[in-house]
Design brief:
Layout: H1 2-45, H2 53-58, H3 79-94, H4 99-112, H5 126-136, H6 158-168, H7 174-186, H8 192-210, H9 215-227, H10 259-271, H11 276-284, H12 290-305, H13 312-317, H14 321-346
Helix pairs in contact: 1-3, 1-6, 1-11, 1-12, 1-14, 3-4, 3-6, 3-14, 4-5, 6-8, 6-14, 7-8, 8-9, 8-12, 10-11, 10-12, 11-12
Amino acid sequence: MMIDKQREAQNVTLHCKELIDSQKEKVCKSIKSAIFGHAVGDALGLPVEFMSREKLVKCPVTDFLPWDLAGGPKGIWSDDTSMTLSTLKSLTEQGRFVPDDLMEQFRNWIQYGSLSPLGRAIGIGRTTFRAVMDYSNGKTAGGISSRDKGNGSLMRIAPVILYQHFVLGNRVAWEKKIQDIHAASALTHATETAMTACGIYAFLMDELLAKADPLSVQVGLQRAKDFYKGSTETETFAFLFLKDFHQVNRSHIHSSGYVVDTLEAAVWCLTTTNDYSACVLKAVNLGGDTDTIAAVAGALAGVLYGVEAIPEKWISTLALRAEIEILCESAAERWFRILERMDDHAE
């Protein structure tokens, strides 16, 4: 009898461990799907950044190109991914959103080339550079002028959304989550337009993380529309919130660095394609701010289709592939430990 009870206890313990390992693997996979999806899109778009749509229609991008189109290495990514990885690192090491630490991570990237494939910062935006340097000098950070409505915060917000989804879950109200999303954006981009774009993106990604289905995009957009109803930015994003937005012609989709254009282009590419590759290549071949639009779209497409849907030839060619993988796995491990502690305290 005693032996049977011991075996039963061992079986229960083993089952619990397998369940925990399975859940942890699911979290890790989702993080990798978003981060690799983002980085691959960035690397595909960087070599043709600011190239016109007309040129790319004649000679579309179909694969990785040398990053400087002059024989340099392939798979190099830009500030979009450096700042995203910096954000992921901060959330992993701190176990929560700590603005001071995040800005320190950004400063290390700018000054010392931390988390950059070439050992130096690539493609620093004007607003971002000014905000990080002002912060380092004790000044108020975050651009608030009409010129500070670029996509520099949207391109790095994904890790905050991942953290909120997997660690905070339903324990924290969406009002508080969006407040932190806005605060994360405001470190460099404090305009209502930039912060709202990050909030809309958060609803989209959260819905896709909950259910990887194309219909989740519409659900996420509706949640965002309801949340921001009455906001001063409602009219700014009215085009994106149209029910037939996915049916609009490409000529109505702009691909500039303006955060509204970037978000619209990314969502349009996601909703008018059926797989990861088609989505990011469509984003790149819109021309303009190719790397950021493909990165923003790529993170969503990565979550929707899964990291296994990203061509292995692209992942294997990606600069610092091993480092990215380790950082994703470290985030999953740390966040899962935090989640376990929360569950223990709730009992």
